Amino acid sequence: MPDSDPPVLTEAFSTSRDGAGTGLVLAQIDQAAPRGRPILWVQDRRAASEAGLPSIRGIQSDERPILRVTANRAIDALWAMEEGLECSALSAVIGEVWGNPKALDFTATKRLALRSRRSGVPLWLLRPDGVADLSVAAERWSVAALPSLDNTLDARAPGLPLWGAELFRSRGARPGRWVASHDRATHRLDLVAAVRDGAVGAGAGGDAPARPRAVGDGRP
What we know:
The chain is an alpha/beta fold. The chain has helices spanning 20-32, 45-51, 56-59, 74-85, 106-119; strands at residues 9-14, 39-44, 66-71, 92-96, 123-128, 139-146, 162-170, 176-183, 188-193. It is 23% helix and 27% strand. Strands 3-2-4-5-1-6-7-8-9 form a nine-stranded mixed beta sheet, sandwiched between helices.
């Protein structure tokens, strides 16, 4: 099961057609990153165009205001991430780079990881429509949206969001597949072992899934 402490560099791969990768990353930050300091969110222009701009009003809080930067090119976005990682006053940096630009190579990820380790500021790198290539990332996730749980207060409204999350590379945890959910009230990211038929049971009370211990089922 993944560690509660954030690694230096985490990558999340997802399609730009939904916000699954963004949702999982924000849940990880809510659980693990320090409070009382802002988050720097850097996007390259293609990521902002294909995946959309983050809804700051909906996701930021008084505990973690969000500073947003949009760069014209991937190489400029990587530079902004590196500069942000030098600032220990941040709680985290989110970098969002679309696809597999030439600038985002193994050397670039190593530079980001070194900056993050030096400052103690963790970096989550969103890779919408990207393909996993060489990287020094300590954790690499593949994320997809799942049908939400039922909303017990309004049957016509969506309930708690769920994600299918595969940890396909990790230096500190066993790879595996989980169904992930986020309890914002307790700042908790829950991971339950994925089942082959895709069925997910709701927890007691219906407002959130049960919180069993997260267990990896190994790579398929």
